[in-house]
Amino acid sequence: MGYFKYQNTKVYYKVKGDKTPLIFLAGNTASGKMFNAFFKYFKKDFKMITVDFPGHGKSDRLTEFPVDFWYENALCVIELIKHLGLNKVNLIGTSGGALVALNVALEAPHLVDKVIADSFEGEKSVEHWAKNVLDYREKDKQNFMTKLFWRIMHGRDWRKIVDLDTDMIRKHYEQIGDFFHKDLSTLKCDVLLTGSKEDEYIKDIDKIFEGLNIQKKNVHVFEFGGHPAMILSGRKNFVKVAM
Questions:
Q1: Short-list 86, 82, 131, 123, CA closest to 106
Q2: Is the pTM of this model over 0.90?
Q3: Which among 32, 114, 131, 175 is least buried, having the fewest CB atoms inside 10 angstroms?
Q4: Which residues pair with 5 in a beta bridge?
Q5: If pLDDT is split at 50, 70 and 90, which confidence band does 5 have?
Q6: What is the rounded CA–CA span in Å between residue 230 and residue 225?
């Protein structure tokens, strides 16, 4: 575990193991801690790496999140890969972390071998989610388990982090909309898309995945679970598909 500097921000990362590099990328409002329960499944074959994006977890706090959030965090991950002296990595990203993973593969294809992109909404911000995210988040703040999750991820200032993320999502929808700077058809690596038909945020996720123009694409949509699928459809089920 340690820190590296990205744009004058101390960014926290953790490394366990010494084999094939596998970087886990958390969804919005989460941190690398969300993957702790997965380590036992991957420790035999991989060097497991988690990172807390700037402003999250154990990383330095930000006064605001960049509007081009998923692209900017991809650049941060690319710097982490270089900092660790890695040549080829595998990426597992869930929800917003899946957007980051795909952006890494688009911007630095020479550094990426394979990507697993779990539970993300497609190429563009979804209108019903972006326009109502404030209401969704306020409702989630009243849920004990969600509040506990956020506190575990970030500590006492979790509310500030959630609010910054909410504000960023609205601004991204209004000002940018697209999640990627390059077309997904230019991806050179193998990509596995995973999700759940019961995802409460993304409707018809199987159709969304099938419609993505990715050359080396495989798709697995679980019949049950929620968001994110890699956890709520069962960790063991996800690992069987991922391995």
A1: 123
A2: yes
A3: 175
A4: 10
A5: very high
A6: 9
